[in-house]
Write a structure and sequence with these properties.
Largest sheet: 8 strands, mixed
CATH class of the largest domain: Alpha Beta
Number of domains: 2
Number of helices: 13
Structural class: alpha+beta
CATH topology of the largest domain: FAD/NAD(P)-binding domain
Helix content: 25-40%
Shape: globular
Radius of gyration: 23 Å
Strand content: 15-25%
């Protein structure tokens, strides 16, 4: 029997395994995927959001706790547990030295991500390099790792963890950390959660999954059935508008189209439906998946002209190009007359200003609904480009309710030896909305807390008393 069992193989699970091992516990990590797909959604990430009161190597200026909290409060609309959110924020200030000791390297933000140079620390080599560094460190420290081991159930006794089951095998441990992700790859669950809309459509049938195919929510469902306290809305998720040609699973970050704030978005009826210039892209990019999900056919079209080229990260698939707007409407199969009227109304409403995509500039529309509040330039310089976009689900926010100790709760009472981290509890901090890099911040903070607490819970009683 090991001291600590960690279920999951992404950032949160690895942080928990490393912290528990550093605390002297024997650790076994069970990853559902084969080795080549290890790392869950973390392999698709790029950075984590960090509080800092002064410049720190790759981070410029300062990003104090209060500003981080206000950013989080704004994107969630207040749907967050302030105590746990501030805990995550404070943890983000001190985790990078520890990450470096485990082989993670950081780099300054690249062109196209400059809005984040003050707030987010980028991983050199991206999330895949971070995951590989953690696995190397875990193996060097003696953490046992089992791949192709999806856990399908837990044995619990009065809220206490006893064992986990996988493919007929039983894994006992003195304590356990659950970090097996949300249910975003479970298309049937997504379908049930989103239901049918007033047009008779099942929106989830048109969703793409940006992240791993292995997050089926099996363990989350098992915990819900076992009476664990739950938090969050099953339809809330990190949901981004991504290229409609992206694969069903594992498209990752390169399927994103970051041109929305530089152009206009129309639905398949050729009509605009939201303010494209509401706020900086890193704070707003994760609202567009949900907005598109509400449109007919769950599809939207990002329309730009040649003035936007070079001002956003080029996506992996080229857009549909045309020398005129009527030609673009036909190429995208949009109703030509409505589309041209939408663009003409938008162009006429644009007020002259000083365009600057690095600030909330004064280029806006007037007398237009919905407005475009910033970066509103007429779309009038050919060639024109259009991207068809669908909702891309990264991770779901339905999860297990927890507290500052990362304990799973049953009827309000914390489990003495079962803890949770990462996507399985992110809904405590993210009731809705998103701001770039905060998912990795939550996973890192709560992974480290859960690992420390699990190691402590696994100690013989007399040693635990000595710690207390």
């Amino acid at each position: 029997m090991v001291d600590v069992l960690v279920i999951g193989g992404g950032n949160a699970a690895l942080c928990a395994a490393l912290m528990a091992r550093e605390a002297g516990a024997s650790v076994l990590l069970l990853e559902a995927s084969p080795r080549e797909w290890r790392g869950g959604n973390s392999q698709h990430t790029r950075n984590l959001r960090c509080m800092h009161d002064a410049p720190q190597d790759v981070l410029v200026d300062a990003y104090p706790e209060e500003e981080f909290w206000q950013d989080l409060y704004k994107v969630t609309g207040g749907n967050t547990d302030e105590k746990l959110a501030r805990l995550v924020i404070r943890e983000s200030a001190s985790c990078r030295g520890w990450m470096r000791r485990h082989g993670v390297r950081f780099q300054p933000s690249l062109a196209g991500t400059l809005h984040l140079s003050r707030t987010n620390a980028f991983f050199m080599g991206g999330g895949k390099a971070l995951v590989n560094a953690y696995y190397r460190s875990a193996e060097r420290l003696g953490v046992q790792v089992r791949y192709d081991t999806p856990v399908d159930g837990l044995e619990l006794q009065d809220g206490r963890f006893v064992a986990a089951r996988s493919k007929g095998q039983r894994f006992e441990a003195r304590s356990c950390v659950l970090a097996a992700g949300g249910f975003e790859s479970n298309l049937q669950w997504l379908r049930e959660a989103w239901g049918q809309n007033e047009r008779g459509e099942w929106p989830a049938d048109n969703f793409l999954i940006r992240g791993t195919r292995f997050n089926q929510g099996v363990l989350l469902k098992a915990m819900m059935d076992a009476g664990a306290d739950v938090i969050g809305d099953p339809t809330q998720a990190h949901c981004v508008a991504i290229d409609a040609r992206a694969p069903l699973y594992d498209g990752g970050i390169c399927t994103r189209v970051d041109a929305v704030s530089l152009g206009v978005m129309v639905n398949r009826d050729g009509v605009r439906f939201h303010d494209e210039g509401e706020d900086f892209w890193p704070k707003r990019y994760a609202i567009w998946g949900r907005l598109v999900a509400m449109q007919p056919g769950q599809v939207g079209f990002c329309i730009i002209d040649s003035k936007a080229i070079g001002r956003f990260m080029p996506p992996v698939f080229p857009g549909v190009r045309a020398d005129s707007l009527p030609e673009l409407a036909r190429a995208l199969d949009l109703p030509e007359a409505t589309f041209l009227k939408t663009l003409a109304d938008y162009n006429a409403a644009c007020r002259p200003g000083t365009f600057d995509h690095t600030v909330l500039d004064d280029c806006r529309t007037e007398g237009l609904q919905p407005p475009k509040t910033h970066w509103a330039l007429p779309i009038d310089k050919p060639p024109f480009t259009g991207y068809a976009l669908k909702p891309g689900i990264t991770f779901t926010y339905l999860g297990l309710r927890t507290d500052e100790t990362a304990a799973v709760r049953f009827g309000g009472a914390p489990s003495p030896n079962l803890f949770v981290a990462g996507e399985m509890m992110a809904g405590n901090v993210l009731g809705r909305g998103y701001t770039a890099g905060v998912g990795m911040t939550i996973g890192t903070a709560f992974g480290r807390i859960a690992g420390t607490q699990a190691a402590r819970a696994a100690e013989p009683e007399e040693a635990a008393h000595a710690h207390a």
